[in-house]
Automatic annotation (TrEMBL):
The keyword Magnesium applies. Gene3D superfamilies: Ribonuclease E inhibitor RraA/RraA-like (3.50.30.40). This is Demethylmenaquinone methyltransferase family protein. It comes from Penicillium olsonii. Residues 218-239 are annotated as: Disordered. Mg(2+) binds at D351. Its cofactor is Mg(2+). GO terms for molecular function: metal ion binding. Keywords: Magnesium, Metal-binding. Pfam families: RraA-like (PF03737).
Length: 456
């Protein structure tokens, strides 16, 4: 099997699944305490090991890590650094930029990083124990590279495999990778089947019984065990949906909000906020859902999701209720499998760790743990609803990011996108003038800042 195939298979899993596979095989590889140091994406690659430690002499030395970074010649590398000193950095923004240029996939540090905003600004993933402002210069030096390391109790060799995501970091011995992948894929299939069983109404005590997990050891990837292409969503976005979504690919909610103001359109969803500080913008077409108080006997709470197309954003009107949730981890996992872009809820969600670990975009009025089952039910789908004081019509365009959520009426989407682009270009021009030495008043006057959001 080629390295590319191995990395692709590993990328399709998460650290939870790989950790479970290692447990089944009696291998150590999962670490505790090496977490993402900014809201960075999952990384998968092969280890380039580096040993660092305290500087014990006064002679000048090359900055730690630079020889290893300069020596990288392939695009599958992850730097794995052991020996960091508590409170002292062994990573910063300059070497993050250098690593990005060398196409290194990320860095795992059993230690600290500083200048973490610099790593984030160039989208360079860094995982470690924490952040600090204290420089490594004259405190920490590189001892060796390409050697076995101890990372939080796990031995990591040069060229071992690495996977890291929101839940942490896992190392896989190179000699066992195919075995781990085979078992990990079986675990993943089994867990998807368990989700489907729960959704079909089977008791969770039966579905999650220990015997079901133990059966993974002997599971074979037979066609009768799981549907082909499990979870594959047959519902695709239309050509027009894709065109309208693409119009907002380079926008964010502040720019779209300003465009809505200039055009006299109400579209800012009040009080609907991101679950976490998302670094990317979610754009999709609205699949609307309206919840109502439960009847006797209660009705369905979530089957609508089978009708949502790839790239849609589920927009749920639960009347702003915060006493019961309408979204949890099973819905998160299933939506992710189905290629749904995200969910916007005028109400609350629960099981937030799952959404964060899966990097599934959720925008809500809050979070709480109490189920909505037997308290609310679906009252209608794909009909006009209200979200945060904004009317949402099915197939409207949803734009959501770390600032909140805006709704763009579908029939005004092209107009809004054009104005948003003009606003964002003007603001970029102002920032450029300020960087060149202009005063903020001069820059704003020259590019008409005070009229950017004003109605024509």
């Amino acid at each position: 099997m080629s390295q590319s195939d191995i990395l692709d298979r590993l990328s399709s899993l998460d650290t939870n699944t790989v950790s479970d596979a290692l447990d089944f095989l009696g291998l150590k590889g999962a670490t505790y305490g090496l977490q993402p140091l900014w809201d960075c994406p999952k990384i998968v690659g092969r280890a380039s090991t580096v040993k660092v430690g305290p500087k014990t002499d006064v002679a000048p030395a090359a900055h730690l890590l630079t020889p290893v970074i300069d020596a990288v010649t392939t695009d599958d590398r992850i730097l794995v650094i052991a020996g960091g000193t508590e409170g002292v950095s062994c990573w910063g923004d300059i070497i993050a930029n250098a690593s990005k240029i060398k196409r290194i996939r990320g860095t795992i540090i059993d230690g600290m990083s500083r200048d973490i905003d610099g790593s984030r600004d160039v989208a360079y993933p860094v995982y470690g124990r924490g952040v600090t402002m204290i420089s490594a210069r004259n405190r920490v030096v590189q001892y060796d590279s390409g050697i076995p390391l101890e990372m939080r109790g796990v031995t990591v060799n040069q060229d071992d495999y690495v996977i890291a995501d929101r839940c942490g970091t896992v190392f896989v011995p190179a000699a066992r990778i195919e075995e781990v992948l085979d078992l990990g894929e079986r675990i993943d299939r089994r867990q998807n089947l368990m989700v489907q069983a729960v959704r079909a109404g089977h008791p969770v005590s039966e579905v999650m019984h220990d015997s079901q997990f133990e059966a993974i050891r002997t599971d074979a990837p037979k066609s009768q065990d799981a549907p082909s292409q499990p979870g594959r969503n047959p519902k695709k976005a239309s050509a027009e949906d894709e065109e309208l979504i693409a119009l907002f690919a380079d926008s964010d909610t502040p720019g779209v909000s300003d465009a809505l103001d200039k055009l006299g359109i109400s579209g800012q969803a009040f009080g609907i906020m991101p679950l976490t500080d998302y670094s990317k913008v979610t754009v999709g077409t609205a699949f609307t859902v309206r919840y109502v108080p439960a009847s006797d006997p209660p009705g369905s709470v979530g089957d609508f999701i089978d009708d949502v197309a790839v790239g849609d954003v589920v927009v749920i009107d639960n009347g702003g209720r915060t006493d019961c949730t309408v979204w949890g981890d099973i819905m998160t996992q299933y939506a992710g499998i189905r290629g749904i872009a995200g969910s916007v809820i005028d109400g609350v969600c629960r099981d937030v760790n799952r959404a964060i670990s899966d990097d599934y975009p959720l925008f809500t009025a809050g979070r709480w743990m109490r189920t909505g089952k037997d308290r609310v039910q679906v009252g209608g789908v794909n009909e006009p609803i209200g979200i945060g004081k904004v009317r949402v019509v099915p197939r409207d365009i949803v734009v959501a990011d770390a600032n909140g959520v805006v709704i763009v009426p579908r029939d005004r989407a092209r107009e809004v996108a054009e104005v948003a682009r003009q606003v964002e270009n003007s603001e970029a021009g102002i920032r450029k003038l300020i960087s060149a030495g202009a005063s903020i008043a001069e820059a704003r006057e020259k590019l008409g800042y005070h009229t950017l959001q004003r109605k024509d």
